[in-house]
Amino acid sequence: MKAQRSFAPDLTEIRRLVVAVTPPGADPPEDADQARDALARAAWTGIAEPGDRAATLLVSGLGAWRALAAAHAGVTPVGLLSALPGTAEDALALPEREWAAALARWTPRLDPSAAERHLRQAAMVGASLVLPSSPLWPSGVDDLGEHGPIALWLRGTPRALESLGRSIALVGARAATGYGEHVALEASAGLVDRGFAIVSGAAYGIDGTAHRAALASGGTTVAILAGGVDRFYPSGHDALLARIVREGAVVSELPCGSAPTRWRFLQRNRLIAASSRATVVLEAGWRSGSLNTAGHAASLGRPLGAVPGPVTSVSSAGCHRLLREYDAVCVTNADEMAELVTGVAGAAAEGDGGESGTTPEERRVLDALSSRTPRHDLDIARRSGLSLLAVQSALGGLALEGRVGERPGGWVTRTR
């Protein structure tokens, strides 16, 4: 393999560009090595397709910068193997023919100016580069191992990424029925009220409904895309994704300008499953792409739930398949979905007597509260159908038990 064009980026320019895409509140690179690592990881997001095992192993074995320099130097598979340290056992175990195939895949994309272009495009749209060393890095994606992302691109609020530690993925059919959209709306709003962030893929149908309901409930939602974070897809969700950028986060492992493709959608699904604590399929046909996400969740050992539908509905055939073939848990409401993560049954259903020691008025006040969105006494009275005096009395008792707390904007529930 012949050498590619010279790869010798200017260090001063590298540091300037890396600082420009450092997430708000995060520390910029302290030295040249950190700046080079960031530049190299940005480059690799455009060289290797998502889930490229060889790229992940090479970066892990040599470091992102040395791996990039080796690729640009036109190293042979034998030379690549000889450059790997003895501790890189997984990379050394990869057969020479696979390294040859990988180098052949990467060669057409080895443009020395590409990494700087990726960083400039990101800075223009206000996107950030999130590295594995960052506190914002979602630790769940590390479970993907040698198929994990090399870096992530983010548009939105950093706190949204931090919320992934308590998140549930809601996915389902694009051609959703009214039943599916109703279930998605209730599930997303209910999970937000229980303190969960909502993860999905921003597609039409179930995904879009889940994102909208989370936003409408004052919660956090994260959309994971199959293309660059500057290319909102589908275009019909431009307004929705713009709002998610303002109030949540849009994430991709591909650099700005990258187009979504069928392969990238399938690979994107593994990030949805890995970044969240559990995955719930709300409505899906027999061959729905949501089953791909469910398969990733199952292979990662993540809790998997499926919402049943009418046995005559082809739109729920995929959910029934998950229940039958994937050992998915049958879930029908937000409490049961939350239980996938917490392992604790939710509040008692209406009419079953409620929690021990809870008065009917307290139960109605709790139902009217959110764990994330503070609500004033009068708002709680409207939602619960109780008088203002009854609400204030119930809040006093619940506050003494530590089950609710008062914030500057109003009252919220507390997890015991």
Characterise the protein shown here.
This protein is an alpha/beta fold and 416 residues long. It contains 19 helices and eleven strands. It has helices spanning 11-20, 32-47, 53-62, 64-72, 77-83, 89-92, 96-106, 114-124, 158-162, 178-193, 206-216, 238-247, 262-275, 290-299, 317-325, 334-342, 360-368, 377-384, 388-400, and strands at residues 128-130, 152-156, 167-171, 197-200, 221-224, 249-252, 278-281, 304-306, 329-330, 404-407, 410-413. The strands form two sheets. The chain has a nine-stranded mixed beta sheet, sandwiched between helices. It has a two-stranded antiparallel sheet with strand order 10-11. Strand 8 (304-306), helix 15 (317-325) and strand 9 (329-330) form a beta-alpha-beta unit. Helix 11 packs across helix 12 and helix 13 packs across helix 14. The chain is globular, with a radius of gyration of 24 Å. 47% of the residues are buried.
Descriptive tags:
single chain; 416 residues; alpha/beta; two-stranded antiparallel ribbon; 19 helices; 10% strand
Q: What is the chains' assembly state?
A: single chain
Number of strands: 11
Shape: globular
Q: What share of residues is helical?
A: 40-55%
- Overall SS class: alpha/beta
First and last CA, distance: 62 Å
Question: What number is the mean pLDDT?
Answer: 89
What does the main sheet amount to?
Answer: 9 strands, mixed
- Low-pLDDT runs of 5+ residues are 347-356
Rg over C-alpha atoms, rounded to the nearest angstrom:
24 Å
Number of helices: 19
Order of strands across the main sheet: 1-2-6-5-4-3-7-8-9
Helix/strand order, N-terminal first: HHHHHHHHEEHEHEHEHEHEHEHEHHHHEE
| Proportion of strand residues | 5-15%
